[in-house]
Amino acid sequence: MTYRLGVDVGGTFTDILLIDEATGDTYRAKTSSTPDDQSVGVLRGIERACAEAGVSMSDIAEVFHGTTVATNAILEGKGARVGLVTTEGFRQVLQIARSFVPGGLAGWIIWPKPEPLAALEDTVEVRGRIAADGSVVTDLDETDVRAKLAMLKGAGIEALSVSLINSYANPDHERRVGELAAEVLPDVPVSLSSSVLPELREYERTVTTVANAAVQPQVARYVANLAGQLRESGVDGRLCILRSDGGLVSADVAADNPVNLLLSGPAGGVTGATWVAEQAGYPDFLTFDMGGTSTDVALVQGLTPRVGRETVVGDLTVRATSVDVRTVGAGGGSIAHVPPLTQALRVGPQSAGAAPGPAAYAAGGTAPTVTDANVVLGHLPTDLAGGEITLDRAAARAAVKSIADATGLDSVEAAAAGIVDIVNENMFGALRLVSVQQGFDPRDFALVAFGGAGPLHANALGRLTGSWPVIIPPSPGVLCAYGDATTNLRDEAVRTLVRRFGELTDASVRDLLTELADKARATLSEQGVAVEDQRVVYAADLRYHGQGFEIPVPLDADSFGDGTTGLAALRAAFDAEHQRLFSFVLDAEHELVTVRATAHGPRPQVSAARLTGGGPDASHARSGATAIWVDGAEAEAGVYDRALLRAGNVVTGPAIVTEMDSTTLVLPWHAATVHPSGCLLINPVDHPGEEN
Fold first, then answer.
1. Which segments constitute the Hydantoinase/oxoprolinase N-terminal domain (predicted)?
2. How many domains does the chain have?
3. Residue 242 domain-assigned?
4. E strand or H helix that includes residue 311
């Protein structure tokens, strides 16, 4: 009997999910995160999950981990001091950047330009030049390179990035600089742009490589430390880390390419949501992951998450494949405040985090948070995380009363309701970014809500978006960890071409696809995945000739098999996507900019648990009733123990459904039906969804 372990570290909680691969039985643990050393919270959670399952830590065959180490290093400005080697004449590539300023008209007047991750004084130029076609214009001056590397050594850099002009077309000069750096700076990790991002566009390639270098030492230390502690604790299983695109890589590969981990945590949630939505029979859905610090949302169509070519963390935008997740500073720990100048209630993005946490945690926090508002409204029980946290209702009321006093509201309940309404609108805005702004009607999608706080707000978000049913997965508070444990190994290979279609043939593209597929498969083969168990998917970045941007579209490799229809099919796919995004197409020649092949390992064979049938009557799971404040008035809500619910049971609102890691609120005039997969399907009572 073997077990698979999923680990997700958030800003407030660390979630652990242990899965029996034979039966599909799951064992959960939720513990407070330990920001100073995340591995402490991880090991504590693993011990608790194993104790609940009654198994030894040596029974764990694989550990799959979604981590925020790289993300936090960027957000907190705690990355390594990075040296940058550029081609002569390109020293200020990061300072010039792109001429885009966020915000409205005259936004540049108040926009504080972010500081580059590699300072100008730590940036050097070397003599040597590669042309756009890969030919050598000027030989690399190795004497000059050694001298410049010695300067960086004297400056005390902690990581080195190398980004030379046109190195995507010919990496020889970069590789030689890397070899020389190993001699001059033997203890400094080196990131080469030709390895990190072998693609067109000098700035994007450079900033991505520098970001990789900035977080590499910290990620490498964390991964090595965690692997060592796992071994000491008796876990001999393989450690893999979740990438931003939802795939897994070995710990060693992750440590070498940490820029691909910047959205590791949110990607796990999308992967887990896809798993449970498939069990419930809903292939098209929005994801809504509300934790203690932030909320992440994404759109999934046909059980395939939309994947973007950019990853945004704070002020930093890098060119790395990631699930198209949008994040807002709205979580259970988001702090409500009333600015003196406007006297208007605001919620977030500041958060009480895990320490000191909301006032209701009675751990030293006094600022009113979303969690405190939910406690005042009666939406939360007194115990959280299986009894690890006991809520202090008096402290929550005292904190929220400060908002009532500052706004002149006549009751603490009204202030709490205002906090919840505002945070719901903030999250609704994020959901519109991944749906309406991308050309999708949210009413055509279900809404999968998870995270520790997601199910509390899910029903209200369903009303705002019109997305039905609202799906509450089993163990919603640890779904990110479930996603970590149910995804597969993945790697990709990329090539930039910049060729008009008139310069290409189906045969030449087919040969390129074969080359890229072999390269992507090699990494998986090194990790023990048999070639026959691997699956390769392809994508291409296309544009009309003369355009300054590309659009990624899926590429059907089979259409290139007969040598006549491949480019035509690719052209049609691009035109359709351009029409959807911008409502027009151009009568212009198409241009193939970048091609990528992504190799996927097999999905893990994890059995899905099925509930026994029980009919619509859910009275056996009702543990009592409680007074709650909802829709501007007090109401009596039934309280239900989710562990006792059976397939087919119907919980009619207002109601509260409790479980170890989360609490679900069912609003009046709505009902939650228990699906055989264990999901709760919430629908308006006058518009019931189709049963599955």
1. 4-184
2. 4
3. no
4. strand 311-313
